[in-house]
Each structure stands twice: as structure tokens, then as C-alpha cells.
Amino acid sequence: MAVGVLAGLMSGAGAALAAGTSVVIADKGFAESRVVAQVYAQVLRAEGFTVSIRPLQSTAQADAAVREGAVDMYPEYTGTALLAVLGRRPTPGRERVWRLVRDGYAARGLAALPPAPFSDENAVACTRAAVRRERLSTISSLGPRAPRLAYAANAEHLTRADGLPLLARAYGIRFGRILTTPIDARYTPLRRGRAQCVYAFTTDPQIARLGLVVLRDDRRVFQVTPYQGFPVVSRAYLDTAPAAFVPAVDRASALLDQATVARLNARVVLDGVAPADAAADLLRERGVTPG
Predict the structure, then answer these.
(1) What CATH number was assigned to the domain covering residues 122-214?
(2) Domains 2-119+227-285 and 122-214 are alike in CATH topology
(3) Contact criterion met (CB below 8 Å) for 153 and 178
(4) What is the distance of C-alpha 284 from the center of its chain?
(5) Facing residues of 29 across strands?
(6) CA dihedral 63, 65, 67, 71 (to 10 degrees)
(7) 262, 36 in Cβ contact below 8 A?
(8) CATH code for the structural domain at 2-119+227-285
(9) Which pLDDT score, from 0 to 100, does residue 289 have?
(10) For residue 291, what pLDDT is reported?
């Protein structure tokens, strides 16, 4: 219904510029990626683009799909792009990381469009009971205590360069047990008492809902690189896209500040609102589409 309403409310100017132009947007299979992809999709629809969304399951899948032309764009994170895709070292500074990502992606035949305001950092969060019992406060403090703890994480985190291998190398962390879950089910083992720590994103609403403690990154390795959201677009698509495309994507990015993304996540994850409906509500609220 939301998609139909948006299609019916397209501006005449936008529709004229983009009529008949299709764009395929991928998401990476977790709640934040799905709802952010919907924001981009619905802003583009309001400009007259015909948009379809292709659900994928990982960074590797999304990166391959956009390079091969199977999708035209997808929402990514600068830290993921720098460390997991380009294979660079952890690097501080939003502007510095953005320039490295922009130039690195250009060399791969992709366009990294200007980032959104929000940033979703990697984190390790643990239950309050585990924090008290093990006297945890920092990620480094996990090193000698990790063998006594169980850790919940998605499969991609266990092998990615900015994931568990980095925690093991930089902090000496080797958990006694690892529970591999789908990315949107990472918190289930903690709710069931089967794990004490979890691979977390700083915008995850479950952190507050479950009363978890985010461990401080005392060595500034795991969390030093910013993870600012940005759109990846195929250069082949961008070179032939209508003039309305980039301004529409930029308008969508501007909507995605930290508080807004956290609220969208909570609506999808905690309230059970469909990502498409959460995005449509946001666009009406911000006056992008009539209420």
C-alpha cells in the first residue's frame, strides 16, 4: 500500500526526468540494511524511478552483485568498505576514510556517493551479569576471560578482516564457545541465557532493551574506523542515469541521521513494523511525500 501511495504521489517534474528508468537496489539481509534500502528506494520512486529491491545476505554478495551489474546500488558502510572490501588497515577520521573509500571504489568501477550523517560502529556488548562476574570494562579485559564466555555472532563476522579475526589478533580474544546465528538473530542466545557476549552494532535497539554493556575499546583498533553509511552505485549505471538520480539519492542520505536510523531500527526490530512501512512513515513525516 505504501508503495502504491508513493507511486501515485510522484512529482510531475521528477516523473518526467526519470519516467521508465529502473533501478535495482540490494540490501544485505539485516534490519538496518533493509530499512535504509527502503528509504533510498522510496525517495527514488517518488522521483519517478521504477525500483525493485533484491535481498542479499552479506557484504561479499552485495559487492559482487553491484560489480557484475546484477544490482545497481546498495547501502554500505565506510568501515566495511575500507577494511573488508578494500583490505586496508584500521584508520581513524570520517573524512580520511571517506576519501580512501571513494578513491578505492572508483578504481574498482564503482561510485561511492556522499555518505549519510549516521555511523553504525562495531561493538562487543555483554550482559550485566557477565560484566560484574568477570570484571569487564574494556575489550582488552575480555582477553583472559573470553575462554569462560560464549559469544553470539553471524557467520560473516567470524571470518571478516574487521571482525573476530581482528579481536583475536589485536586483543587476544578467543571465546570458549561461539554461537553462529543469522545476523538478525544475534541477540537470541543472550535472551535464552546461552551466551554472555554478542557482536553488536552501536545502533542496535536490543542493547538498551536487554540492558547490555558495550565494552570500551581501550586500544582503539576495533572501533577506530568510522562506519558511516553511504550508497554504492555501479559506475556503468551512474554514467547513464537520469539527472534526477544523484540528487534523489543525496536527499535520501540526508534523512538518515543517527537518531533517525536508531528509531527506524527500533520500529523494525522491536515493534515488528515492516521496513517498507517504517520508511514510508519517515518520508511522510519529513514532508518528502504528502501525509
Answers:
(1) 3.40.190.120
(2) yes
(3) yes
(4) 23
(5) none
(6) -120
(7) no
(8) 3.40.190.10
(9) 86
(10) 67
Which among 44, 61, 59, 42 is positioned nearest to 1, based on CA atoms? 42
Q: Domain segments of the chain: what residues? A: 2-119+227-285, 122-214
Closest to 63 in 3D by CA, of 204, 233, 240, 291: 233
| Alpha-carbon span 268 to 257, nearest angstrom | 17
Residues 6+ apart with CB under 8 A from 120: 32, 77, 201, 202, 203, 227, 229, 261
Q: Which amino acid is at 175?
A: F
Cell 577520521 belongs to 93
Q: Find the mean pLDDT for residues 27-53.
A: 96
**Residue 55: alpha-carbon gap to chain centroid:** 13
Q: Give residue 24's region: left, alpha or beta (phi > 0; psi -120 to 50).
A: beta
Dump pLDDT digits (tens) for 195-221. Answer: 999 999 999 999 999 999 999 999 999
pTM above 0.85, yes or no: yes
Phi-psi region of 193 (alpha: psi -120 to 50; beta: other; left: phi over 0): left
For residues 280 and 5, the answer to whether their CB atoms sit within 8 Å is yes
Q: Which residue has the cell 535464552?
A: 192
